[in-house]
Specification:
Length: about 280
């Protein structure tokens, strides 16, 4: 396996990490082609959708990455699993259907993805938190818009300094679900490192002022965890209490051979609902 520089100390300090050169440029090119083909497959299955009445061009699909025949290899890639195991500090990874891909520019705005997003005294902030999200961006966001912004240290603190995550082709981003972040970041042509921190203002920037992506934005997201009360609570209080996440799980269909591959890679797949995977 490729020798990756995975700085767990940096992740624990800042709440995020960019792992450089995980995939080759050719692999990313292939993933882009697979994402477009997968979207056409999903469209034929009536699984695709766009968010109505919102200033977004993003195209989404119901069903997790494990259910996507052309993209599941990215979720179960040994390099991705190595990053997750190193960051979480344990070989016994848990996956519970929380993953997706999207094509195009989506929503913006700083937020957290955990349960206790504003209550810093809630259970999420007690003990070691064991859920991380990983993102593969299939285009350059060091020099162009569309990438991730992070508020440093907000997995421990209420607020922090916003920065652009300078991911390049082949890199993988990792962040705690407690970390404040914003997707689809706008880089200005004149001031490419100046962060506009209000989503309303960011959405108002005209195209001629942006450093637009050279390629259409495509991204893959996945969540891994360790067994813990934090994971149980996330499933019970988030996954099982939203109509969209329940529908996402119901739309995730794959045969037993996929579960066997995950088992061989020592990834325990939890079913958030009985219909998941059937």
């Amino acid at each position: 396996m490729k020798d990756l520089k995975i700085d767990k100390v940096s992740f624990e300090r800042d709440g995020y990490l960019v792992v450089k050169n995980v995939f080759t440029a050719e692999e990313i090119k292939q993933l882009r082609e697979e994402a477009y083909k997968q979207y056409e497959i999903d469209k034929a299955k009536n699984l695709t959708f766009q968010l109505p009445n919102l200033p977004t061009k993003a195209k989404y699909s119901k069903g997790d990455l494990l259910s996507k025949e052309l993209l599941r290899h990215a979720l179960l890639d040994d390099r991705m699993l190595k990053i997750a195991r190193t960051i979480l500090g344990n070989d016994n990874l848990v996956y519970f259907g929380d993953s997706s891909y999207q094509i195009g520019t989506g929503l913006r705005g700083f937020h957290r993805d955990n349960i206790d997003r504003t209550d810093m005294t809630g259970p999420d902030w007690q003990g070691e938190y064991t859920l991380i999200r990983m993102g593969i961006y299939l285009q350059d966001h060091k020099n162009y818009s569309g990438g991730l912004k992070i508020k440093i240290g907000t997995h421990k603190n209420e607020d922090g300094k916003p920065i652009f995550v300078d991911s390049e082709i082949g890199d993988v981003g990792v962040w705690s679900l407690k970390t404040k972040h914003s997707g689809n970041a706008v880089r200005l042509k004149m001031f490419p490192n100046y962060s506009i921190n209000t989503s309303g203002k960011e959405n108002m920037i005209p195209d001629f002022m942006k450093k637009e992506e050279q390629q259409e934005r495509i991204s893959l997201f996945m969540t891994f965890a360790l067994k813990s009360s934090h994971l149980d609570r996330y499933i019970n209080e988030y996954t099982l209490k939203r109509a969209d996440t329940i529908e996402h799980a119901k739309s995730s269909k794959f045969d037993a051979s996929v579960m066997e591959i995950a088992k061989q890679k020592n990834v325990e797949v939890l079913k958030p609902i009985p219909e998941y995977g059937n």
